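Researcher: Checking consistency across runs. Here is Deoxyribose-phosphate aldolase again:
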Amino acid sequence: MKNLCRKKTALTAILVSVISLSCGTSEKKSEAGKIIQKSIEASGGENYENAEIEFTFRHRIYKSTRNSDMFRLERTVNDSTGKTTHDILSNEGLRRFVNNKAVTVPDSMVTRISDGVNSVHYFVQLPFVLNSPAAIKKLSGEDEVESEPYYEVEVSFRKEGGGTDHHDKFVYWIHKENFTVDYLAYQFFTNNGGLRFRKAVNPRIIEGIRFVDYQNYETNMLSTPLRHLDSLYEAGELEFFSNINTENINVKLNKNN
């Protein structure tokens, strides 16, 4: 009987530990969601949901239109021959126009074009895009970067609804007082993969929505945990890769909603 009691006690302890661990994980995920929601509110909130945003990035014109759950993401490219290619990604899928005429996009190119359009809009509209149902959010810790306090929030994406790059991983440093996203790091797996660390610079508010540019850094130490990239940045051990500048930003808010 004593052995049986000991086994029951041990089993109970294990179950309590598992339940406690599960609750702790759930609480961290819930806390991460609250932090991101505060960040969205601090950076534009409801303005995002009914905004028409147009900007230039690397000589290409981008435009997004949102109306609650409906979205339309566009990219217009003018090449040296005078050809204009206009891609539109929406709830209905991808459409391409060349010199204002609809063309058929080969199945092998749909994903590549869609990802190219979506990724630029994604970074421009952070942190709003993190409210996606496919986003898995976790508060992984707190830290100081350049003497400022931050929450470290990890974000990954479910396969369902997370796009073809759903396996990419992200860490966002969200300021503990003003809830702005001032740094981010991500790991990607396309084109042989890599790690990037970005510092937000040149913040500005346009029609109530916060926009930033980025200083983009990289490292060849691909086994480095994303959470450690801020320390490498402060130690000067990351290599500058590029400037990410969003130009000619114009925002129109649909005030009828």
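Researcher: Does this match what you'd expect to see?
Model: One thing to look at in this run: The mean pLDDT is 86.
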